[in-house]
Amino acid sequence: MASFFITTAIDYVNGMPHLGHAYEKVLADAIARWRRSRGDDVFFLTGVDEHGQKVQQSAQKQGVEPQAFCDEMSAHFRRLCERLGTSHDRFARTTEDSHKRVVAQFLQQLHDAGDIYFEEHEGFYSVRQEQFVTEKDMVDGRWPEIFGDVVKTKEPNYFFRMSKYQDWLRTYAEEHPHWIFPSFRRNEILGALEKPLGDLCISRPKSRLSWGIPLPFDPEYVTYVWFDALVNYVSFSKWGQRDCRWPADVHTIGKDILVPAHGIYWTIMLKALGIEQPRRFLVHGWWHLRGEKMSKTTGNVVDPLELIDRFGADAFRYYVLREMAVGQDADFSPENFAQRYRSDLGNDFGNLVNRAISMIRRYRGGNIPSAPIDPDIAAAIHETRDGVAAAMDDFETHRALERIARLTQRANQYVDERAPWRLAKDPALAADLDAVLATLADTVRVLGILAEPFIPHTAARIQQQLGMDKPDFRFAASVPDGRLAGQTVGEPQPLFPRIESPEDRRAP
Ligand code: MSP
Q1: CA 30 – CA 26 distance, rounded (Å)
Q2: Residue 20 CB less than 6 A away from ligand 1
Q3: What confidence score (pLDDT) does residue 505 get?
Q4: What whole-number distance in Å separates Cα of residue 400 and Cα of residue 385?
Q5: Band of pLDDT at residue 503, cut at 50, 70 and 90
Q6: Ligand 1: distance of its center to the CA of 490 in Å?
Q7: 188: CA distance to ligand 1 center in Å?
Q8: Rounded CA gap, 486 and 497, in Å?
Q9: 9 CB less than 6 Å from ligand 1?
Q10: Where are the domains of the chain?
Q11: Alpha carbons 373 and 434: distance in angstroms, whole number
């Protein structure tokens, strides 16, 4: 069995989760589920990033201890995962002792090797980004908005000798064309490496920031942000154990944290530590709302839980995975969401399942007939399987869902063409009716398997309604072979019922 280890970024807990966070988890979950359906031994890691100045400040504002604040906020993120139905194997929290131990061990190793040094540094410090910036970061003589307030400070700190690895990283980036997906983003790393890399400040004096991980070689200092957060990928991979899952096959991240955080810092940290590199980065774009990035800093956000409450987790999952072309940005629109729910999910997908089950009950007392599968539909199923597999191997969920939608439409069209209600009127056409019903039962079964990575709750309900007593989501089972013949279907229940909009309710 092939091993497959996939991660998401870990979210800052200084604000509530929004649709952008939810998307990343659902994207990674769809890939994890897809790989499981192919028979891989999957390890899926997600979690939260709990240290740093912003968390300390937010806790202070509320008058609670940072740990209590983190406990409460992390619960919101964990709950989001539950509501989304993500199939993660581990939920990482950077305040866990096991993580802190690995961070300390790595810092000590780099310090012993001379890759971490102490130096007084006078410079500009961005309060919002919690990092030193240089005049090179200015645009037209001003600090860009993203840095917030920039102040001049003088402070001795520990630095990671990143500059030493610049040439190595350039060669590594050049020699690994598949390292970053989509591939054009590798250029951002190569571009950043055209300028000399400075060394990375990795510490804060405890007097200024206490909510971090103490440096093992100087208890007056803590590390925070990247040297803490990035290490989670290794520290939660069962590091040091016999069944350790490192290296990650896929790190799922947003485009804002590829350069410099992952593509430069993380890659060099691993190199310096002598740890194998992750195989690939899957870099997704941003969800926008009203033309701007969804962000808790600006408050321009959509609450995923509200959508889940109203439409269900699968509708949410379907919408984000169908609407965003992986790697590009997408715009959230409530109208578009409602439209996809009504049309793709309700009228097409849900309706097909409902029609199939209802007709098997009406015309055959619920028993799925044994009959040959329509060859055109069988061919369409094979084509869909190939298309879904190719799309998912390229992380392109929107293309996979497009294929599934096409098969759904084809099957609905088949029902209209063959008109089982007419065949049922003529006993001489009983064999034809059997073939239509057997074809529909198998198509619905296969659609359930192929759709499982995206809409897992619905997929489980389809198998229940088909009367299958053991769920089977193996991709290998998604072939049209009439294996349900002789089984009895269950109650048809609408998968995506019509939802009145608040506007409808107000109408007279
Ligand atoms: N804590 C760091 C990541 C550390 S990973 C070792 C962080 N946290 S975050 O909460 O700001 O973002 C978490 C993830 O959500 C990132 O991958 C980020 O790109 C993603 N998103 C945040 N806003 C987003 C959108 N509007 N759209 C899509 N994803 C975006 O960065």
Answers
A1: 6
A2: yes
A3: 53
A4: 9
A5: low
A6: 42
A7: 18
A8: 29
A9: yes
A10: 307-477
A11: 10
